[in-house]
Amino acid sequence: MHMRRGVLLALGLAGMMVTAACGGGGGTGTSGGARDTGGTVTLDWEMWAGSEDEKAQLDHLAALVTQQHPTIKVNLRTAPFNDYFTKLQTEFAAGKQPCVVSMQSLRLSAYADLLEPLDGKADAQGFAPAALEALKLGGKQLALPYDLASMLLYYNKDAFTKAGVAEPKSGWTVADFEQAARKLSTGGKAGFGMSFADLHALSLMLSYNGAQPVTPDVKLQFDSRPMVDALTWYAGLATAKAALVPASSSDVGWGETQFVNGNAMMAVDGSWNIGSALKDAKFAVGFAPLPAGSGGSKTYLAASGFGVAKGCPYPAEAAKAVSVLTGPDAQTYLAGQGRSFPSRTGQQATYEEFLVKQDPRNAEAVRGAIASVKDGLAGGVPLFTTKNWDSVGKLMAQYLIRVYTGDQSPKDALATIQQQSARGQ
Amino acid sequence: MKRPVRPRTTEQWSALGFVTPSVLGLGLFTLFPVGMAVVMSFFQWPMLGTREFVGLDNFRYLLGEDPDFLTALRNTFVFTGLYVPLNILLALGLAFWIHRSRWANLWRVLFFVPAITPMVANAVIWKLLLQAVGGEPNLLADGRTALLAVVAMSVWQGFGYNMIVFSAAVNEMSPSVLEAASLDGATGLRRLVSVQLPLISPALFFAATMTMINALQVFTQPYILTAGGPGNATETLVMNVYQAGFESRDLGLAAAGAWLLFAIILGVTAVQFVGQKRWVHYES
Q1: Under an 8 A CB cutoff, do A113 and B137 touch?
Q2: Testing the interface with A: which of B12, B20, B32 to mutate, by most A Cβ within 10 A?
Q3: Residues of chain B with pLDDT under 50
Q4: How high is the ipTM of this complex?
């Protein structure tokens, strides 16, 4: 009996040590690529994708790389967008990261130390400067953009016509916006759909008075005076019964969903949703630049792109792959598929044509949308984020809603967000 | 006399053969992670970057400085304090009622459906329902009602399982004991409290213990319904651990939080086991 227990214990311990040995190898791995005997390098590329169609588009891009560099093969791995960053950080932690990493400008600071700067290693010609800027941190180009997004005011054309309110256009002011929101709030419908998501809520506050929650040297300043003023104004839309307050802190996409469902007549949403809003809404959709506050119309910009992971055993090949994945051919293809607003100025017209062709009746709306995007780029500022932006986003969801329901003052809520996110920024 | 060594050794080897897979599994997938979590809780262990030994700092931070941990602890206890009694009472009441119903099997299936449908789907449907019901502000956006809404959804989702357990126990109540009780004149409440409940007390104990453990680990319902908000009104311990691990990427802090939760569950369960001697009757 005694012996048996000893054997079991030893077996158990041996098992643990085997696991420890396997698990201990992580952290400094050189994974993500391999060279076969023929000299062909296969690179892993991790990207978010929500459907088979999107996967097929990405496979096409991967094939473009081999077409232009026959000795480089790209092996695509995908995850749904909501799981992508959780998966990516786990892979980095385990040393199993891909060579080619897909990155979003809002998440860049959390991954800055893990990405190889691309300056001088990849082709950076032909991009909209704002798109390159959004994926730069500390003066280093950490990824090359494949798209560029600005925030727009989406509005329900039918509702504006019915209420006899002049439609939003370039030069529309915050006062015009408020007035319209009030007038359109009738019969159980609201003039505006509110949000606590970073780009959606913060862009409108930026346009209102230039308030920014992050300083140029990437420090949080949620409790600054302009932020308090901007939030007071934003929450005032709810107090005046001119806006729909999110139903809970987990309703991240509230404003834009309520807009498409026809419950809110205006909402702030990104340029990436132009196509889907036109398709899904059962009313005519119009687009305009965000209403102009004291400093003119402004919006935050965001970009997504591809970078090279540190520790990739074939960085030169990976940089070449990134150049192709964000190159003119790739962008022409993606724009023709209607993926999103291209980061390369030369391909932006292709995207516009795609949207027009989708439904020629929307031609005018599309042209207005693209003009508004370009307008936005002129007054656009990249939203630089802190390392702990995920936690900041969660705090915004939890505390801004208290301000919208009138449960907490803007000043207190912003102070709470600032104080609780000071750790790890 | 010669000792029969050979058969015993063979027996031992086959026993070892049978037991090895599960011991290995337990070691690899349970004991190792548990041991690893203890080690990690003493480190500042970022998901990305270098780790550093910090002793009890993680525990000190959670109990002293973390603005959310103690609130999460309170919310978890409030949730458990409401959810467990409501769940048990509802399940018990329905089990007795179903026992006498002509459509017993139909009711059992109907009430068990929420327990076997995925929790995420249930939570999403409840969220839509609460949205449709409306109200200004929404129940889930109001700090006074958000946790209650989470409890209501959880009871609806969770009581079916206990109801099946109680239903089986009620069916198994010894007819001779019940008959003896009725001959002695026990009826109504008296019969329920002094005869029927003691008869099903092992099932009650099992359900109370398991429900309590589940309740202390509540995560999915508040995560989907309220994301911890408004403010931190519905933030629970496991959400705090999740937040530390996957949003702050501080695995050491997450491990420390998980260990505190483990200690709490162990303590509560131990108290229940000690207490059961006074009210649980096993037929021998």
Answers
A1: no
A2: B32
A3: none
A4: 0.86
